[in-house]
Amino acid sequence: MIKKEDIVTLARQYVNEVIAIRRHLHQHPELSFEEYQTSAYIEDQFKQAGIFYRKGFANTGIVGVIEGKNKGSGVVALRAEMDALPVTEKNNTVYKSKSEGKMHACGHDVHMASLLGAAKIINGLKDKLPGTVVLLFQPAEEKLPGGAQQMITDGALQDPKPDIIIAQHVLPGLSTGKVGFRPGTYMASSDEIYFTVKGKGGHAATPHQLVDPILIASHIVVALQQIVSRNANPTEPSVLSFGVFEAKGAVNVIPDSVRLEGTFRTLNETWRHQAHEKITSVAQSIAKGMGGECEVMIKKGYPVLVNHHEITHKAMKYSRLLLGDGNVEELDIRMTSEDFAYYSQQFPAVFYRLGITDNKGKYASQLHSPSFDIDENAILTGMMNMAWLAVAFLNDNCEKTNN
User: For 254-261, what is the mean pLDDT?
Assistant: First the structure.
């Protein structure tokens, strides 16, 4: 039986090495579906540690497997994402990104380093490991259609098939040393909305001779807010926002068409699909009623992320044993999205948060910001908690089997 003290001892032994790994990964970011060097680096880490691995899932995905002596006690999968964002870093650190216009601005470097650290810990204890741990390094979380679904399709989680899958994600504003959980529904679905509003352009001084697509598009944007305020259940959050309103006219020129782009997010899959129909109907009806037309394309994104109630409550209990009661928090829902949701549809899942903000409030820049960074003391918590959760679940399964 592996004890938490075993985990803590090895975590402290490896932490400086894992911080160096995080810095290397931060300096060499790669965009979604382009993580070739990142994948090769992880492969090299597996080789050095003598960890069995398979590669080629979703092109750059790589999966390590650590088997204990007692394989019959279950399988726990731990997941990290590998891709960076098209962001130019503004920080001036010794580990600043060396790739102009690319940055690990969402903490995926931390997730990979923490998982590699957890792998080192678990591998060091494999003679006492009561089961199997799968180490899942996945590409392209940041870009639709995402890498998770393709990893599943490619069989990354078939041999062996996990009983539980766990992932952690950094959270600015949550203090270093803390982790946060939410049982049940946690993160929203995310869909992309694309409209092309067509009319009849011409001289802005003769609007009576035209069909103004700017006016039509404006009415559509305003009217669609009622999809949320008057159609959605007020107890179930929904968000409909537009970030692009492009009309290539001039001060005295009304264009023939206008482009709108936005996002729709919700925490209810049934309402999600109903809303798609209403969004399409409202947009096209308004355009037709004003003499124009509206082409609608809704690109389905990630589904709602649901944490398994029982497994998540257990994970919270295990984390309290390791970190202390005051360092485990219950979180609110989030309207951001994550392709880990695809795993949560296939397996009992736990997606939790890692605190990265020091006690002076430093390292609180928001995710996807060019000034995003972390308190590196958080890496000890990240690698230690991931390893402990995997081991604790396997310990529990082993006790049940022996009883």
Answer: 98
User: What confidence tens digit (pLDDT) does each residue in 206-240 have?
Assistant: 999 999 999 999 999 999 999 888 888 888 899 99
Tell me which of 30, 34, 83, 373 is the catalytic residue: 83
Tokens standing for residue 134: 């799968």
Q: Are 319 and 357 in contact (CB under 8 A)?
A: no
Q: Are strands 305-307 and 75-81 parallel, antiparallel or unpaired?
A: unpaired
Whether 191 sits among the annotated catalytic residues: the reply is no
Active-site residue, from 81, 89, 141, 373 = 141
Q: Quickly state the pLDDT bin for 73 (edges 50, 70, 90).
A: confident
What total number of domains does the chain contain? 2
Q: Which two tokens stand for residue 400?
A: 């049940």
Same domain, 20 and 56: yes
Condensed to tens digits (0 to 9), the pLDDT of residues 118-138 reads: 999 999 999 999 999 999 999
pLDDT at 400: 66
Q: Tell me the CATH number at 341.
A: 3.40.630.10
What is d(CA 170, CA 175) in angstroms, rounded to the nearest whole number? Answer: 10
pLDDT at 311 over 60: yes
Dihedral sign from CA coordinates of 340, 46, 126, 10:
negative
Beta carbons of 164 and 397 less than 8 angstroms apart: no
CA–CA gap between residue 302 and residue 141 (Å, rounded): 10
Domain span at residue 13 reads 4-187+303-402
* 365: pLDDT strictly greater than 90: no
Say which CATH number the domain at 223 has. Answer: 3.30.70.360
Enter the pTM of the model: 0.93
Question: Of 271, 335, 272, which Cα lies nearest the Cα of 305?
Answer: 335
141: annotated active-site residue: yes
- Exposure pattern of 209-238 as b/e (b: 16+ CB <10 Å)? ebbbbbbbbbbbbeebeebbeeebeeeebb
